[in-house]
Amino acid sequence: MERPGTVEGRLREASPHEIFEVIRSTIEQRHHALAVELLMADYEMTRLQPVETLPHTRPPLPVHESAPGRAFGAQEPYCVPDATAGTVAVHLPVSVRGDRLGVMSVTLPDPKGDGAAAGTLGDLQACADALAHELVVAGRDTDLFLQARRAERLTLAAEMQWQLLPGCACSRPEYSLGAQLEPAYAIFGDNFDWSSSADHLHLTVNNGMGEGIQAALLTNLAVSALRNARRAGLSLSDQAYLADQAIYGQHQGDQYLSALLLRFHLPTGNVEIIDAGSPRIWRVRGGTVEMIELEAQNPLGMFDDTVYRPQSFTVAPGDRLLFISDGVYDALSPGGEKYSLRALARSINETRLLPASQVPRAILKALLGHRGDGPAADDAMVLCLDWTGRPAQG
């Protein structure tokens, strides 16, 4: 059997569009696999799309009603034996640092009905993990895997927004993040961004105004300005000021953007925050669901030379924070009834046992049940952060 490092080397040497073929041939040689398939999660995170050359591809599989979907949801290998065929299907999560990309399905000979051995499962999961890292890198140089995610065509505004995101989930020992945008194929203004270092997590949540390309361009300008300031090592107040000036300089107050800027200190859980007319924050602590009240300041770009003052609070191990945009609160039922705070609190409570990566999709599903099948009047965003905290040293 090849050493694990050999697989990574072959993947790095392969052309970006060929990396799955490298994994496929490796698994076929090592384990005499009868079939190897890659399924990518679509933008709604409700379907698993087969990776094949478009338009010649097979129908997608549902995340919630399929064997590959069980591996995707649980983030663990899931085996399905077929005694009649003398085979076992092994479904393995393909994820990077908590960001769920899809599932790799491998069909192996199983004439004795013993299932896949532990060593085989471990090697297959190692191959899936190596593939996941290469998929992220390959996205810079090939459209193959991004195309496979599309159950339908993205609007141009949605294309711009999804390309701007850092991912849909991220995990570190101190925290887990998960986020989702809706309608996934026609999002235009809402967005989020994050970045971590040894001791800090920077998180921004944006609730853009306007529709279509105009909203997407505004959000792109804001996120780029915030990243530029953050990467220059500026304070949270100066990050807000630079983004505010960039937007005001471009639009003279005719367009502006509501945002939350947060800086978490990983060793202590202390949080520095600026509320620039932002999405609201909910906290789940000890089974209690409550809103965090903040001093609302001017949205970014509304006025010239706005001075932003940070506030602070502290997160404790076990806390869950949820950041929810106006598109959730303002959603109307077919009868014109708004989605109430009580209904939202109930939805937050009902998802308390789910991991952070699955919470946004579950809350937005409840919202869609309220809104019905009609078109959304506004886009919606939910971001969930589970805080574990850093164990005390010594």
Entry summary:
With 394 residues, this protein is α+β, with helices and mostly antiparallel strands.
Your description of this structure?
The chain has helices spanning 4-13, 19-31, 67-74, 118-138, 144-148, 156-164, 212-231, 236-251, 326-329, 341-350, 359-371; strands spanning 35-41, 47-50, 61-62, 78-82, 87-96, 99-109, 169-172, 175-182, 190-196, 200-208, 257-265, 270-276, 280-285, 288-292, 311-314, 320-324, 380-387. It starts with a helix and ends in a 7-residue tail after the last strand. The protein is globular, with a radius of gyration of 22 Å. Strands 3-2-1-6-5-4 form a six-stranded antiparallel sheet. A six-stranded antiparallel sheet has the order 7-8-17-16-13-14. Strands 9-10-11-12-15 form a five-stranded antiparallel sheet, covered by helices on one side. It is built from eleven helices and 17 strands. The chain folds into two domains: 4-149, 2-Layer Sandwich (Beta-Lactamase), CATH 3.30.450.40; 156-387, 4-Layer Sandwich (Phosphatase 2c, domain 1). The model has no long low-confidence stretch (mean pLDDT 91). By secondary structure, it is an alpha+beta fold. A hairpin with a 2-residue loop joins strand 5 (87-96) and strand 6.
